[in-house]
Target: RNA-directed DNA polymerase
Amino acid sequence: MSSLSFFVWILFLILSCLSILEINPLSVASFANISSQSEGCFLILFMVSFAVPDTLECEVQWALESITMNKASGGDGIPVELLQILKDDAVKVLYSICQQIWKTQQWPQDWKGSVFIPIPKKGNAKECSNYCTIALISHASKVMLKILQARLQQYVNRELPDVQARFRKGRGTRDQSANICWIMEKAREFQKNIYFCFIDYAKAFDCMDHNKLWKILKEMGIPDHLTCLLRNLYAGQEATVRTGHGTTDCFQIGKGRHQGCILSPCLFNFYAEYIMRNAGLEEAQAGIKTAGRNINNLRHADDTTLMAESEEELKSLLMKVKVEREKVGLKLNSQKTKIMASGPITSWEIDGETVETVSDFIFWGSKITADGDCSHEIKRRLLLGRKVMTHLDSIFKSRDITLPTKFHLVKATVFPVAMYGCESWTVKKAEH
Model:
C-alpha cells in the first residue's frame, strides 16, 4: 500500500469517527500542524475513537454567538451582550475556563447558582402553589452548557422515541394534537372505541432524584465523562429568591432539575424515557393498531397520554406506568388526571380517589372531544381570536397608527391564536 493510500485510509477512518460523534471535521482543522503527519493522524484517531473529545475554541465561539440576547442576567450581573461585544477576547477567556472545567470536571461555584423569581399565576397570592418560578443563571455558564447540550444531542436522537415531542428540535404540541386527531379519525373510520388517560404528575420536574438520574444516564449509554460533569454541576447547587422586597440568603438544592439550566429538559426526557421503558409499553399488546404499528402513548415531557381500544387495556397501561413512576419518586396527581372514552366506561379510582371522566379535554392547547369532532375546537379558536381583537380595539380605532401597522399587528397577535392547531382540523362543508 502506498503512503498516499495509507493516508487516505486513515483520513477516512478519522472522518467516520467524527461523524459518529457528531463533530464538525472543520473544527479539527486547528490541528493541521500535526494532522499532516501520520503520527498526528494516529493521535487524532485515538483521541476521537476512545475518548470524549476536549472542548474546542470554535465550539465556545459558536455557543457564545447562539445565546439569546435581551435576557436578564444571573447572580453575577453580567449581560450576554457584554460577552458578545468583547468577541475574541471573551472567547479566549471562556475557552480557558471551559477547558479547565472539562479536564478537572469541577465547576465554578458561581456557575452553580440560580436566582429564583416567583411570578403569580392566578388565585390567592398568599399560597405558594399559585406561583410559577423562573430561574436566572450566569450567561457565561450557558456557554459550557450549550457545548454539553450539543454533545448530548446524538444520544437524545438515539434513545428517545418519536412519541416524545417536548424539547426536541422540529417537534411540538401541534404535532401531538395532529397525531391524536388522526388516531381518533381512524378509530371512527373503522368503528372502534378508543379510550384515553391524560396523566398529570405533581411537580414532576422538582421531584427528579439525582442519584437515579446518574444511573439512568449510564444505562442510556452516556459517556462517563459527560455524566461526571453533570453530577458535579448538580452537586452543591445554590439558589436565592428575589422579590420586590429584596433577596434571600443562599440555600442548597438537593432534588429536582437544575432550574434555568438548558440541559434540564434533555435530562428529564432521559428520566421519563427510562420510566416508560421499565413499564414495558413498547412490548405491550395494548394500544391502537394503525398504519402497521401499535401506539399506546403520546408524550410531551412529563405530560403523558395513554390510549387503548378497551377500558381493561387502558387500566393495565396506567398501572404499569404508575408503579414505575413511583419507584423514581414521581406521584400521580389524581385530581388533574382525566379519562376520556368514545365507548362505555365505568368509574375509576386511583389511590382511593375517583378519576374524573370527561367528554372533552384541552390537549396541549387544542380542544378534543370524545367523538373526534373538530367543529368545537374551530369555534373555540374563532372566539379566542375575537377576544384578542377586542383587546386591541382601541389600537384599531386610532388614527395615529397606519393601516400597514394594524395589519402586521393582526398578523402577529390574532392569527396565531385563531389558527393554532389548524393543521389537524377536519373542516366540514358547513364550516367553509
Remarks:
- The chain has 15 helices and 15 strands.
- The longest helix spans residues 139-159.
- Residues 4-9, 18-50 have pLDDT under 50 and may be disordered.
- The chain has four domains: 3-50, 57-159+210-261, 173-205+267-368, 374-431.
